[in-house]
Amino acid sequence: MTTHTESEIVSQPDCWRRAVAETPRDALPRPGERVAVIGCGTSWFVAQSYAVLRERAGQGETDAFAASEFPVGRPYDRVLALTRSGTTTEVLDALAALRERGVRTSAVTASPGTPVVTAADEIVMLDFADERSVVQTRFATTQLALLRAHLGEDLSGAIADAERALAVPLPEITLSAEQFTFLGRDWSYGLALEAALKMREACRAWTESYPAMEYRHGPISIAGPNRVTWVLGEGAKGLRAEVEATGGAFLNSLLDPMAELVLVQRVAVARALAQGLNPDEPLNLTRSVILPS
C-alpha cells in the first residue's frame, strides 16, 4: 500500500509546473523592498533559501527568521510568512504584531479558511500542494518553486531533474548508513537543513547539516565507514577525497538542489518503511504547532 507521503513526493514535478504557471505577481515581495521571511520548521529553511536567492537576483535586502525569533521592531517594507497549515501560533503572533505596527505582510499557505488568510494583507494559496502527511514534502518544494519563478528563474531544468530524482534507484549506502551529514552552499544550505530534518522526522535518522565550506572546521570528524556526506548543489573543492579517505561515502549528483531534496525524501520514506515506521505520521509530531493562549 502506497503511503500519502510517497504519493505526495511523486506529485512534485506537476506541482512545480502549476506553481510556475500560476505565479502571482502582486502578492509577493516587489523588487527593491526590504523584506523579512518567516516560518517554522521546514518553512524556515525554505525562507533561508529564498532570502539568498532574492538578494542574489538583485531584488533587495532579504532576511530569514524562525517566526518565534523574528525581531518585530526591526524596519522592513514587507514581511512574507510561509505556513502550510495557516494555524501556526508563532507565525500568527508575528503577523498580529506587524499589523499593529502597520507593516505590509504577505503569506503563502496551503490551507483556505485558516487564520492566516485574514492575518496577512495578501495571500498566495497553494492548496493544490497541500498534504495529508504530517511531514512536508511537496508543499515545501512547491512554495520554493513559486518563489524562484517569481524571481524570474526558468525552472524547466529543475523540473526535469526532479523527474530524474524520482526515477533513479536509491543509492544502496543510503538505505543502511548509520549517519548522514547534509551540506549546501549559498541558497542550497537551507535545503541541506531541510534534508536533515526530513530524515529525522520520517525515519528517526542521525543527521546533521552544515554549510559545505564549514564541514572541514570540525564536523568532518564524524565521517567514517557506513556514514554518508551528502552535498546538495555545489560542494567544496577537494572535499570528496577528504571524506572518502575516512572510509565514508560522498554523494553529490549535481541535480538541481531542490530535485536532490526529492531524492532525500525518497530515502527517508524507504528507511521509515524498512523500520516499520509510518512516514505519514512521525512520532511526536502534528501537522501544526498550536500553543495554548
Automatic annotation (TrEMBL):
| GO terms assigned for molecular function | hydrolase activity
Q: What is its EC number?
A: 3.5.-.-
What are the alphabetically sorted keywords of the record?
A: Hydrolase, Repeat
Domain SIS, residue spans: 20-163
- Identify the InterPro entries for this entry: GlmS/AgaS_SIS, GlmS/FrlB_SIS, SIS_dom, SIS_dom_sf
* SUPFAM superfamilies found in the cross-reference section: SIS domain
Q: What is the enzyme's main class? A: hydrolase
Q: What is the name attached to this protein's record?
A: SIS domain-containing protein
Q: Which organism is it from?
A: Streptosporangium jomthongense
